């Protein structure tokens, strides 16, 4: 297929690592199916990629190119995730005209070998992509990068008195609801949700004590616009979240499950391309999505460890904590007696530098590796990893399930609380870590997860889910069927 004849997908991720990563996988999947791809980073993230990997990280390849738009925030060269409330508010209010201008420029670049734009694939919380696509007369797919079980909660009607009250100012009674056991109230009435849900398992946005909370208003606004999309894509598989997916399909445009994306991409990159499609898998492998430099010594360190002997700890790209919490984690890990690989981002400790006690460093010498970032999928697939202490972000959850690794769940933000509940009660692969982490409790949980009866059952269930994830991406599996339907039913292609 000549470059000028290819369908052209413009992929627009929300500018945080947990959204850029799955959108990059989806963009590569489309490339493997014969699309010309333009991947749109914000200028801030574009600079971060170059600092981490060099200019080659954003170098254009034949039929896979990069573009940028401003995010509307003041210029910064910090090597950190931007403030969630600030970036959500700014992208929602300022990015539409910049995306429209980019689409116009792409459509005017026919002489440069760039085919006309045929579809926009936007993050579900970058829903201005729907308006930009409408302006040039092409379909827009919204990519929900979180779980299906974390999707429908914000717009669901909540019966009076069933959640902490929102008020103009925080009253003592309202604040007490967060700590007095009220959040353990069972919630069995939420459409499409687990019958094991408690109030504390709903996304963190609903705990706001103030009307006009930026994040709550943002999520409500973005989710309410989903019906304007041509279709919705999710990085999940039907067997994992059937009830939640049924609820979504009852109220939304066509919903396509094409996950786990990591397994699907591997399958397509290694397969014989469709007739007329040229795939340069080696070149595609040089395209990076990680905004932090990955420490590849992690894999070499794991090579020297026995099978299932290592605790892997990574809190994702947004989680922050106090140094006191960090120290509690440190001594819980140290006292467990197990080797551990611990990812401590430069911006993990809120407002200060992470400081670990010298005694901790001395006592764990030889059985601990600290790193600032790593190639997580490769780490999770390493046979030395026995359990994953995670923030329960959806990328981490799907990668862990795909690798058959059980989880210790310490959620921080958004729908991570919901993911934790499903991992622990629906999928049987997780155990909860108390939000107010204490070293003694963490030590006990690690030992149970690594060698106790609960841990053995978690591993058995994790292996079952790994097999189910692989089946979904095999030829004839639901992920490949849905992807082909997405393309062949002209959702992603211009209609003749």
Automatic annotation (TrEMBL):
What are the residue boundaries of the Glycosyltransferase N-terminal domain, all occurrences included?
10-136
Does the keyword field hold rRNA processing? Answer: no
Q: Which organism is it from?
A: Miscanthus lutarioriparius
Q: What EC identifiers does the entry list?
A: 2.4.1.-
Q: Tell me which family the UniProt entry assigns to this protein.
A: Belongs to the UDP-glycosyltransferase family.
Q: Which GO terms describe its molecular function?
A: quercetin 3-O-glucosyltransferase activity; quercetin 7-O-glucosyltransferase activity
Transmembrane spans: none
| Pfam families named among the record's database cross-references | Glyco_transf_N (PF26168), UDPGT (PF00201)
Record keywords, A-Z: Glycosyltransferase, Transferase
Which Gene3D superfamilies does the record cross-reference, listed alphabetically? Glycogen Phosphorylase B
> Key word NAD present in the record?
no
Protein name (Swiss-Prot/TrEMBL): Glycosyltransferase
């Amino acid at each position: 297929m000549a470059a000028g004849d290819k369908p052209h997908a413009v992929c627009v991720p929300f500018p945080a690592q947990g959204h850029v990563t799955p959108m990059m996988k989806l963009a590569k999947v489309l490339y493997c199916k014969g699309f010309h791809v333009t991947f749109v980073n914000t200028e801030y993230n574009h600079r971060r990629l170059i600092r981490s990997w060099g200019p080659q990280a954003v170098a254009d390849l034949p039929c896979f190119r990069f573009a940028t738009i401003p995010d509307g925030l003041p210029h910064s060269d910090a090597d950190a995730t931007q403030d969630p409330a600030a970036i959500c508010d700014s992208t929602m209010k300022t990015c539409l005209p910049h995306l429209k201008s980019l689409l116009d420029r792409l459509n005017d670049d026919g002489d440069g070998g760039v085919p006309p734009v045929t579809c926009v694939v936007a993050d579900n919380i970058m829903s201005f992509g729907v308006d930009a696509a409408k302006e040039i007369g092409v379909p827009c797919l919204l990519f929900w990068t979180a779980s299906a079980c974390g999707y429908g909660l914000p717009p669901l009607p909540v019966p009076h008195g069933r959640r902490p009250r929102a008020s103009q100012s925080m009253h003592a009674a309202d604040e007490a609801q967060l700590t007095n056991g009220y959040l353990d109230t069972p919630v069995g009435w939420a459409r499409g949700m687990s019958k094991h849900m408690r109030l504390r398992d709903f996304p963190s946005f609903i705990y706001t004590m103030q009307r006009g909370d930026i994040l709550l208003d943002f999520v409500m606004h973005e989710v309410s616009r989903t019906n304007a999309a041509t279709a919705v894509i999710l990085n999940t598989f039907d067997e994992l979240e059937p009830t939640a997916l049924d609820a979504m399909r009852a109220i939304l445009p066509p919903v396509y499950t094409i996950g786990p994306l990591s397994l699907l991409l591997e399958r397509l990159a290694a397969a014989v391309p469709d007739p007329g499609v040229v795939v340069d898998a080696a070149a595609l492998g040089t395209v990076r999505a990680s905004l932090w430099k990955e420490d590849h010594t992690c894999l070499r360190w794991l090579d020297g460890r026995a099978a299932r002997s290592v605790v892997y700890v990574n809190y994702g790209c947004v989680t922050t904590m106090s140094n006191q919490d960090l120290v509690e984690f440190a001594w819980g890990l140290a006292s467990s007696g197990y080797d551990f690989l611990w990812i401590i981002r430069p911006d993990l400790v809120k407002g200060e530098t992470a400081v670990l006690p010298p005694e901790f460093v001395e006592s764990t010498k030889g059985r601990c590796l600290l790193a600032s970032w790593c190639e997580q999928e490769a780490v999770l697939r390493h046979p030395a990893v026995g359990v994953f202490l995670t923030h329960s972000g959806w990328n981490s959850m799907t990668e862990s399930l795909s690798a058959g690794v059980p989880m210790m769940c310490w959620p921080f933000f958004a729908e991570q609380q919901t993911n934790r509940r499903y991992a622990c009660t629906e999928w049987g692969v997780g155990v909860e870590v108390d939000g107010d982490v204490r070293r003694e409790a963490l030590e006990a949980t690690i030992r149970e997860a690594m060698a106790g009866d609960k841990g053995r059952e978690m591993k058995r269930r994790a292996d079952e889910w790994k097999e189910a994830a692989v089946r979904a991406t095999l030829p004839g599996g639901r992920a490949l069927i849905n992807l082909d339907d997405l393309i062949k039913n002209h959702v992603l292609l211009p209609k003749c």
